[in-house]
């Protein structure tokens, strides 16, 4: 499934019960955990392990899109208000 973020928009900290793979398709984005933030660009592939608290979204001044691959029975828990 593809997810599109407007300029500078991100989702909130969350985790998944199963692994998630992000495939960057457009723009410049950020994938962050509590310990680090990495800048990602088209062609980058990011593996998010099960249970890892993270967020992803567009970098400042850029829109951002990615595909995500995740098992259908994975549960997502939002960890930020």
Account of the protein in words:
The chain is mainly beta and 81 residues long. The protein has a single domain (2-71), classed as Sandwich (Jelly Rolls). The protein has no helices and nine strands. The protein has strands at 2-5, 14-16, 20-27, 29-33, 37-40, 45-48, 54-58, 64-70, 76-78. The strands form three sheets. Strands 1-8-3-6 form a four-stranded antiparallel β-sheet, with no helix packed on it. It has a three-stranded antiparallel β-sheet with strand order 5-4-7, with no helix packed on it. A two-stranded antiparallel ribbon has the order 2-9. The protein is globular and about 30 Å long. The relative contact order is 0.42. The mean pLDDT is 97.
Q: Quick summary of this structure?
A:
The protein has 81 residues and is mainly beta.
């Amino acid at each position: 499934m593809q997810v599109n973020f407007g300029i500078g928009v991100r989702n909130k900290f969350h985790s998944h019960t199963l692994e998630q793979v992000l495939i960057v398709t457009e723009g410049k984005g950020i994938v962050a955990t509590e310990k680090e933030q990495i800048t990602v660009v088209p062609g980058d592939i990011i593996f998010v392990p099960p249970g890892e608290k993270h967020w992803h979204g567009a970098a400042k001044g850029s829109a951002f899109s990615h595909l995500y691959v995740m098992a259908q029975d994975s549960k997502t828990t939002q960890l930020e208000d």
